[in-house]
């Protein structure tokens, strides 16, 4: 059983949804990024999405774009991203919290899908969320990911109709990521009613857990999603807390880590209290 | 038994030209891209759509564009007999209108109520703003802030035509960033908005669709050359940024083995300096903007900035069909530097009384090298795909002239 599947099984046993936290690898620099990563489970993250910075993040809003630029400027590379995960597993001893790499396919394609999957698995990565890899193109990644024991979490959107969904489900493992709005990360938010109806629609088609993301900014919004989905994904709002912890020269202030962790704790409390 | 292979059969139904092309986009867009594919396939088969487009091309855009024998340039270079396909004489001043009229007609047919576009030099933006004015559709054009500054006349033209120009400051603030921003807008507005892509790139069906709309250039050239010389041309030359004018000229000739075909990328300050926009000469395959193609990038796959004096060629990628034609060996791809293009630009002004855009000035720079090596009976066609009015300020600055 993969770490992702095991984690959702545990959440189900606890009768609660999970909190998936997105941070950008190397933001604001590789050292502070590692401190953030290390502290996420203790702050309440049930699963971790680690963004692979890309120069041209076409599905991301201003917050995640800026985070990627900070990280690239501070010298993040794919090797250093794998190293962050390797050190996370080694130094925290955490062998249960799943870490997913999120980003764009060119990072994988340049290394070669086979080698990328081997390197990722060796570092302690559990799966991928690749924004620009719809099922039409997922065939060249899936066999290598499966061989390396990595889950491929595919995205569904409000525009994904019943005809199309089976093609996505054929490639999906770990969980299904429902993009709750039409748009880029960190912009609009979906209503609880919308989330509820889409989650119900997805549940009728798949037994996979369902994570919902894009536009969740507050503990209340996270709780609303957690009442219906198996996990709430928060990204841009966390990345904004990282930015808020930087001084006007872009250097981390002492309150960066406490600020980020306090916010995640509030989100986690929202998620954990949702079904009580 | 030998099987006759066609170079014109691509892409396959999923939009692949060999390993290139495809549909690498966010899931939110996928259903709409499939819908676009169906709508385009239906439109292509509909005689009424073709009739309406042909009517607009003839009476609004001014097609066919002339095939002009450049006698003085031919004499000066002392080799091949040089013809220009004069797409700079189209309404709006470049070949871009050919594609835009097709796409905006399709947008109307699909019931879309808003059109967005990306632009580099501004030629595609102006063409899109023009068609949207004609069809009374709101139009938003995304343009890198750097390009907004260096193509000021075109920015004003777009505004006069009623379009909103949104400067893009993200990334390198040039064409690739404008395309990112257009895709970001589209993913949020996809139910009402038609994305009018300006070149033979992006997710399928765009590369094939834009090529089909631009193929009017090559189809006319065939007929006009038959009328003028009684035979097909021997050599075709066109500049390449994303590659739409080149694909439009080349595609109808790909299966004529006697026709030598040459694409000219922008070598900027020189390929060896790393400051260039020549994805085929200086890049390698990768995935960006919905398709797999040759890209300028580092070893991790981060996209590197292109450099060219021409904003229209300043793009770190190229249409996927060009990538495939390079690997298939059917088309030769070469590059011309900023300085070579500037020299060609000035030569054409003085010799033929034509001020070319900086983009086809790159093609001309290669013609200046190639034509003298060819016999006098070699019929060479260069696509003069845009006029240079928009570039006179940038050229003056580059030549140290104060206006």
Characterize the structure shown.
- The complex is a heterodimer of chains A (276) and B (403).
- With 276 residues, chain A is α/β, with parallel strands linked by helices.
- Chain A is globular.
- Chain A has one domain: Aldolase class I (TIM Barrel, Alpha-Beta Barrel), CATH 3.20.20.
- Chain B is an alpha/beta fold and 403 residues long.
- Helix content of chain B is 43%, strand content 18%.
- Chain B has 16 helices and 14 strands.
- A six-stranded mixed beta sheet of chain B has the order 3-4-14-9-10-13, sandwiched between helices.
- In chain B, a hairpin with a 2-residue loop joins strand 1 and strand 2.
- The radius of gyration of chain B is 19 Å and the shape is globular.
- The N and C termini of chain B lie far apart (66 Å).
- At the A-B interface, helix 5 and strand 6 of A face strand 2, helix 1, helix 8, strand 11 and strand 12 of B.
Strand content of chain B: 15-25%
H/E topology pattern of chain A? HEHEHHEHHEHEEHEHEHEHH
Number of strands of chain A: 9
User: Which strand order do you get reading across the main beta sheet of chain A?
Assistant: 5-4-3-2-1-9-8-7-6
- The total beta strand count of chain B reads 14
Name given to the CATH architecture of chain A: Alpha-Beta Barrel
Number of helices of chain B: 16
Helix and strand element order of chain B = EEHHEHEHEHEHHEHEHHEHEHEEHEHHEH
Provide the structure class of chain A. Answer: alpha/beta
Task: State the end-to-end CA separation of chain B.
Answer: 66 Å
Mean pLDDT of chain B: 96
Largest sheet of chain B: 6 strands, mixed
* Main β sheet profile of chain A: 9 strands, parallel
Strand content of chain A: 5-15%
Q: Name the CATH superfamily assignment of chain A.
A: Aldolase class I
In helices, the fraction of residues of chain B equals 40-55%
Unreliable stretches of chain A? none
Identify the CATH class of chain A.
Answer: Alpha Beta
Strand order of the largest sheet of chain B: 3-4-14-9-10-13
């Amino acid at each position: 059983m993969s770490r992702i599947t095991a984690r959702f099984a545990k959440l189900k046993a606890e009768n609660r949804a999970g909190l998936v936290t997105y941070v950008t690898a190397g933001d604001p620099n590789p050292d502070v990024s590692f401190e953030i990563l290390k502290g996420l489970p203790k702050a309440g993250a049930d699963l971790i999405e680690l963004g692979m910075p890309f120069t041209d993040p076409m599905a991301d809003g201003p917050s995640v774009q800026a985070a990627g630029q900070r990280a690239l400027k501070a010298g993040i590379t794919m090797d250093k991203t794998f190293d962050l995960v390797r050190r996370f597993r080694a130094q925290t001893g955490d062998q249960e919290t799943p870490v997913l790499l999120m980003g764009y396919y060119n990072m994988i394609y340049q290394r070669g899908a086979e080698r990328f999957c081997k390197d990722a698995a060796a570092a302690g990565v559990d799966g991928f969320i690749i924004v620009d890899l719809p099922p039409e193109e997922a065939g060249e990644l899936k066999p290598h990911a499966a061989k390396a024991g990595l889950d491929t979490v595919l995205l569904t959107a409000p525009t994904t109709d019943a005809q199309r969904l089976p093609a996505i489900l054929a490639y999906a493992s770990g969980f299904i990521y429902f993009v709750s709005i039409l748009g880029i990360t960190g912009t609009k938010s979906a209503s609880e009613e919308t989330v509820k109806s889409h989650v119900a629609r997805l549940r009728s088609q798949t037994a996979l857990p369902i994570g919902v993301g894009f536009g969740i900014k507050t503990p209340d919004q996270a709780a609303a999603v957690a009442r219906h989905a198996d996990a709430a994904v928060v990204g841009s709002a966390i990345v904004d807390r990282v930015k808020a912890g930087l001084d006007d020269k872009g250097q981390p202030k002492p309150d960066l880590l406490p600020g980020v962790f306090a916010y995640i704790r509030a989100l986690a409390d929202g998620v954990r209290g949702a079904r009580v | 038994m030998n099987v006759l292979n066609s170079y014109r059969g691509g892409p396959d139904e999923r939009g692949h030209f060999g390993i290139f092309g495809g549909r690498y986009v966010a899931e939110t867009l996928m259903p709409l891209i499939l819908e676009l594919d169906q709508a385009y396939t239906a439109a292509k088969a509909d005689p009424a759509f073709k009739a309406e487009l042909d009517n607009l091309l003839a009476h609004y855009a001014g097609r066919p564009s002339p095939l002009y024998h450049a006698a003085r340039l031919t004499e000066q270079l002392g080799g091949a007999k040089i013809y220009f396909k004069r797409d700079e004489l189209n309404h709006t001043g470049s070949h871009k209108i050919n594609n835009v009229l097709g796409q905006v007609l399709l947008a109307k047919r699909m019931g879309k109520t808003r059109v967005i576009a990306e632009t580099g030099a501004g030629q595609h933006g102006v063409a899109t703003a023009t068609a949207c004015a004609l069809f009374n559709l709101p139009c938003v054009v995304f343009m890198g802030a750097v390009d907004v500054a260096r193509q000021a006349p075109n920015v004003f033209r777009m505004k006069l035509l009623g379009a909103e120009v949104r400067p893009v400051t993200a990334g390198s603030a040039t064409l690739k960033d404008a395309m990112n921003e257009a895709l970001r807008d589209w993913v949020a507005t996809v139910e009402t908005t038609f994305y009018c892509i300006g070149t033979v790139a992006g997710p399928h069906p765009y590369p094939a669709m834009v090529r089909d709309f631009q193929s009017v250039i090559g189809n006319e050239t065939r007929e006009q050359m038959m009328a003028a010389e009684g035979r097909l041309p021997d050599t075709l030359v066109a500049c390449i940024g994303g590659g739409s004018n080149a694909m439009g000229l080349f595609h109808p000739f790909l299966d004529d083995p006697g026709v030598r075909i040459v694409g000219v990328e922008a070598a900027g300050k020189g390929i060896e300096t790393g400051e260039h926009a020549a994805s085929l000469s200086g890049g390698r395959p990768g995935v960006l903007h919905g398709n797999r193609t040759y890209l300028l990038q580092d070893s991790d796959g981060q996209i590197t900035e292109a450099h060219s004096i021409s904003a229209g060629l300043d793009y770190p990628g190229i249409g996927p069909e060009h990538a495939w034609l390079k690997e298939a060996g059917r088309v030769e791809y070469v590059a011309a530097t900023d300085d070579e293009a500037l020299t060609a630009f000035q030569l054409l002004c003085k010799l033929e009384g034509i001020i070319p855009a900086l983009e086809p000035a790159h093609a001309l720079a290669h013609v200046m090298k190639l034509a003298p090596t060819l016999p006098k009976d070699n019929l060479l066609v260069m696509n003069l795909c845009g006029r240079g009015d928009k570039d006179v300020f940038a050229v003056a600055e580059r030549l140290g002239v104060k206006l």
